[in-house]
Structures are given as structure tokens and as C-alpha cells.
Amino acid sequence: MNTQDRITLTAPEALELARAAFAMAGCRDEVAALMARIFTEAELDGIASHGLARVPGVCGHVASGRVAGAAVPVVTRPAPAMVLADARGGFPQPAFQAAFEDTLSAVRACGIATLVVTDCFAADVMGWHTERFAEAGYLAIGCANVPAAIAPLGGNRPVLGTNPITCAIPRAGQPPIVIDQASSVIAKSEIVERAAAGEALEPGWAVDSEGAPTLDAKAALAGAMLPAGGYKGFGIALMVEALTAFLAGSQTSLQAPPLAKADAPAPRLSQSYIVLDPARIAGPDWMDSVEGLVTAIDAQPGARLPGSRRIEARRRLAETGVTLPATLVVKLKEIAG
């Protein structure tokens, strides 16, 4: 088979193939269906780095026992406006899903709620979670800690993860605005992909093990990634760490083992979400302000709303299907049996 060969799958075909792979790897039915949905939707949104190409590796973590694919999350309410979802060593998404209605109930009662997901594997597309709250009409902010990859300014040893942060803003009659970004200049998956392909990095992305700037992806993986915006990005990563590991009592980025090592212990990471009902303060017409800002952005030639390319890709690929490397499709079929 030529490594350049590509195969196009319809969205339902891709979804079913991913579901079968997760199920065969050892996920219970509900988890397999949910994880397949998340990775397929990432592919449909044009986020290939977090899409179906990740499924074989993630299934490997389940098959090895590093991720508890059959775990049943435990949801509790430690306070009226606080929801705690213990993933029990599984994926964060099933724990999030199990706590979703309780979190909405807390927002309706209190106007604000905090959801903390603990003892979980790493996040994938964080915006998927906040978008669920925005679809329900609420403003949501979310963040997650991941294993250490970012060094402090002037340093050469990672102490914080690329700790992503996301915000979803509802719109009347339109998909929510979703902002989803890492605290680093670039997502670590980009470094990994370039290392595998033997491609150079862009300047300002990473340093080597001696703290010197590097364009060598493999040297960067042995060194550290740089925070977005210099000290500001490092500050954001630290704030995320406080809102996740410190709040949840989970492993810090520094304590969590690397995700790429299939035989490493479970990372036992955490996520946090703050969900608000702006109508309690700004009144029922608060989305008018959102549309005013959207109009100002759209009126400028060449400007684009954050997340707009993702929405465009979602609409297009839902009709045309997703085109994947043939080797990936074969691998997924092998896992799915």
C-alpha cells in the first residue's frame, strides 16, 4: 500500500469504525460511543491533530490498562454550586457527561456552578466540553492540566503542562463561539508530528535540554516547549494548574507521567469548568452584546471570528466525509476486529 493513499469515509462510517475500535480495546459500550463521537467530531471540525489519527494510540492505552475504559464515574455535590466527577482512572469525557445534568441543575439554582473532573486521563479537544454548556445557553470557561512540557522563562526543565483553556459563548440561532487554546506557543501534538516526519520547527516554539532555542523537533521533545506570549503564557499555565490540580487534589503536571509512554502509570489528571448564567446579571437580552461584537468583527475585511473555520469545516465535511490516510483506516479496522 502506498503511504500516500487516502480513503474517504462518510461521517457515520468514521463514527462506527472508531466506536468499534474503542469497544474492542476494552471500553464499555457507552464510553466507546462517546469517545468515538468526540474524535470523529474533532475530525469533522478540521482538527486532524486531535481527530481520528489519535484513536489507535488512545485505544492502546485502554488495552494496556493505563486508561480504565470500563470505569463508571462517581458524581457528588460537595456544595450547592459545586459538582465533583471522579473519573475513576478513565477518560474525562464520560465523567463530564455523567455530571452534565447535575451541573446544569446547579447553574439553574445558583446562577453559577463549578464542575471538577478528577482522576482522569488527559483532555483532547477541551472546547467540546464548554460547547455543550453554551448550547444549553450558558457561558462556560474550562481548563485542564496535562503532563509537564513547558519550562519557566530562562529555564530548561518542564514544570507545567501545555495546560489548555477554553471559553464557549452562546449565540442566538448560531453555533456558539468556542475559544480553545494551549498555554504553549503550539500544541505538543504538532511537535510530535514534526518529529515523526523529520520536519523542522518554527522559531520560538521550543528549547533543547540545555535551554537553547531549537528547530529540531526531537531535541524539543527532550527539552521543553515555550509558553505563548512569554511570561504571560507561563502565568496562564500556572493559573490553570491552580484551578485543576490544586483545586482537585489530583496529580500536578510535574507529577504526571508522559502521555506517550503506554507502559507508564495512569496520569490521574483533572479538569475544571465554571458555568455561568449571564441573564441573572445582564438580563435576558445579554446575547445582544455578543452579536454586536460579532458584527464589528465580521465588518472588517480579512477578519474572522474565533472558531469560524471549525464551523465551516464541520458543515463541509459532514456532507463530503473525511479523507484519511489509508494506513490509518487499515489500522483502525485491525483494532476494531
UniProtKB/TrEMBL annotation:
- Write out the entry's keywords from A to Z: Oxidoreductase
Catalytic class of the enzyme: oxidoreductase
Q: Name one GO molecular function term.
A: oxidoreductase activity
Cite the EC number: 1.1.1.338
Keyword Oxidoreductase in the entry? The reply is yes
UniProt-listed Pfam families: Ldh_2 (PF02615)
Question: Is the Oxidoreductase keyword given for this protein?
Answer: yes
* InterPro entries per record: Mal/L-sulf/L-lact_DH-like_ah, Mal/L-sulf/L-lact_DH-like_NADP, Mal/L-sulfo/L-lacto_DH-like_sf, Malate/L-lactate_DH-like
Q: Hey, which family's this protein in?
A: Belongs to the LDH2/MDH2 oxidoreductase family.
What is the name of this protein? (2R)-3-sulfolactate dehydrogenase
Q: Which organism is it from?
A: Pseudooceanicola algae
Taxonomic classification: Bacteria, Pseudomonadati, Pseudomonadota, Alphaproteobacteria, Rhodobacterales
